[in-house]
Amino acid sequence: MGNAFSSPNRNLKQFSRATALYSLGLKRFPENPQFSVGLALCLYDSNNTSHADLVLQQAQKRFAHNDDILFTIATTYEYHRNYFEALRIYQTLITRPTTRTKSLINLIGVLRKLKMPFRAQHYVDANPALFDDTTRAAIRSDEAAFELRWALKGYYLHSNQTLLNDALNKINRNLLSFNLNRPETLSLKLVQNSIFDKTAVLNAMGRTHAAIALHDTYAAEGLSFPSYALTAVAEAHLDQKNPKRSQKLLHEALRKDPNNFKAKVLLFYAYSDAYDMHDALAFAAKLDAQETPNIWDRQHLYKMTNPRKLETTILHILSLEYAGYMDSAESRLETLVAKAPANGWLRSTLAKLYYYRGWYDKAKQEYTLLLHQNPDSFTAKEGMILSQLMQRDYEKSYQNIEALQKEYPRKTKALQELNKAYEQSRQGSFSVASRFGDTPTQSSVGSSSGYYINSRLYSPRFNTHYRVFLDAQRSYEKLYGTKLQNYRYGAGLNYTSKTFDANILLAYNAKNIRRFAPSIDLQYALNDYLKVGGGYALFSSQSPLRGLVHGTRADRLFATLSYRYSDEQESALSLEQVDFTDGNLRYALGLRHFQHLIDGPYYNLDGYVYAGATQNSKDDALYYNPNNDAYLSFEAKNSWVLYRFYDISIRQTLGLEFGVHWERDYGSKSTGAFSVAQEWRLHENFGFGFGYLRKRSSYDGNLEYKNEFFLNLDGRF
User: How confident is the model at residue 57 (pLDDT cuts 50, 70, 90)?
Assistant: First the structure.
C-alpha cells in the first residue's frame, strides 16, 4: 500500500514527499525490498548520493540471499553510475544459477563502462554461447581504444609500438568483418568508432599520411568525426607541416568538445608553426589564465594542485620565446625552476631555452642535473648531444648518439633528427660575397667604380675535426679611365674543436705581384662568453688594390677579443698592424658594440656603436693612409620578417648610420650611411641576400658619396 502512494510522487518528481513515504514504508515493512530500492532511487534523484548508497548497502545485507533483489540493487547502482558496487554484486550473482546469465550480460556492460575490456573478454571467452559477434566486436573495439590510450601515455617506450600494432589489428578485424557483407556483426556506431580509432592509431604510429587519407576519404562521404579523432588528424597535418589545415581541424574539434585539452595545446603549436605569433601569444596567455594556479612542493617531483597549469604556463613561456621575447621567457622559467627544482619538465624547458640562446655550457649543466634526477630521461640525453654538437664536441656527440640508438631503438623520429643534426655538422659549405659600386664624387684621388668578389668552398669534415677549403678573390676598380684589377686563388686547411678554430691558407696572387701569400688565423673560446683570436698574413688579401698595381703589398698582424654578454649584447675589440713594402707602417684600433633594443615576432631593432683610430708612418701613398684619423658612428638596424614558414623565410632590413670622422690636418666631417637589404632562406641548406648601400665618407677633407650593390650566397651540401 505504501509503495502505491510513494511511486506516483516520485514519478511526478515530488522527491521530498516520495522520500518521506518510502522511509515510512521501510520502517513499517523492512522486509519489503520495494521500499529500500524506491527510497534509494528517490535519494539518487534528489542528489543525496551518500544516503542512497547507505540504504542500498543495508538492503544488500538484509536480502543477501535473495538473488533477484540483489540483481535489482546492482542494476540500480549501474544506472546511477556506481559501477564498482554494481561490479561487486554482479561478480557474486554469476556464481548463482538463477541469475547467472543476466548477471554475466550486465557484468560485461559494466566492465566496458569501467574501461576494462580485457577482463570483459575473459568472461566472453569463458561463456561463448552467451555472446554474439556484435558483443565480441564491441569488446575488440574497446581493447583497441584502451591500447591506444595506454600507448599515448608513453610510460613504456619499448612496448608502445606493440600496443599500437595490436590495436590496429583489432580495428582492422572489425572493419573487415563489416566489409565482408556481414554488417549484422557490427552496428553502424561501432563501425564509425572503429574508423575514428583507426585514425588516431595511425597518427600515433607515425603513419600520418595514412591517417590524413583515412579522414579525408570518410569526411568526403559526410562522416562527422568526433573531437578526439579530429585532434589526431590535426596532429598529423602538423607533422606534415600543414599548420593552417591543422588550425581549421582543431577549431572544429574544440567546437565539438570545448574541454579537449590536447586540442588546445596543439592549436598553440599550429599557430606557432604557421608563424601566426600574435594569435599564439594571445591564445597561450588566455589558456594559462583559465587554469587555477599551482601550489608547488619543492620536495616532490610532480606534486602540484593543478598539473594542467604547469603545461599552460610552459606554453605561455614558449610563446614568448618563439616571439623573440627571450629575456622575459628566461626570467619566468628561472623563477619557476627555483620554486620547483625537482620538476624535470621545467628544467628541460629552461635547458632548451639556454641552448637556443647560445648558452651551451648552461644548457649542459641543466641537462646534467636532470640526468641526476632521472637517469633515463631521453630529453636530457638528446639535449646534451645537441649542445655538444653546437660546441663542436664531435667525438662525444657521436658516441652518445650511438648509445642512444641502442637504448631507445623505437624513438625513430627523434633519433633521425639527432643523426640529421650530426650529419649537418659534417657537411661541406660554400659562401660567396660580392659588391658592385661607384664613387662618382670628385676627390683628391678621383671618382671610381668597381667590384669585389670573394668565395670560399669547404669540403665535408673528415677525421672528425678537419676540412679543406678553396678560396678565390677577384677585385676590379676603374679610376680615371685606368683599369685596376687583381686575382687571388688559394687552398687551405680548417681545424675545429670544442674550443679551438684555425685556418691555414696558402694563396697565390695571379695578377700584379705574382707570388704566394700564406696566412693563418686562430680563435680560442674560453667559454660561452669570451673569445680571443689573432692571425698573421704574408702578403695580406687586404693589401689595397691601388697599391698592388704599383708593386706595394702588405703583411698583416692582428688580434681580436670579444665578450658576449648574451645573445642580445656583445662587445668586440680589434688590434692590427699592417706593414707595407713601400715603407708605410699602419696601426689600427677598432671597437664594436652590439645591443638588441626592441624585441618582437615581426619587427626587431638592433643598435651598433663603432669606434676606431689608425696611424700611418708614411705621409704620401697611392692608397688612403692618413697620418692619424679616428671615427665614431652609431647604426640602427631595423628588421622585419616579411614571410616565414618553417625553414623558409624572407627578412627585410633597413640600416641608418650617423657618425663623425676626424683626420689630422683636415678636421672633422660628419658621415653616414643608408642601407636596405633582403635575406631569403629558401631551404635549411641554402640562402641568399641582396641590397643597396648609400654611404657618405670623408677622404682628405673631401666628402665622398658611394653607391654600392651587394649580393651574398651561402649553403651546405
Answer: confident
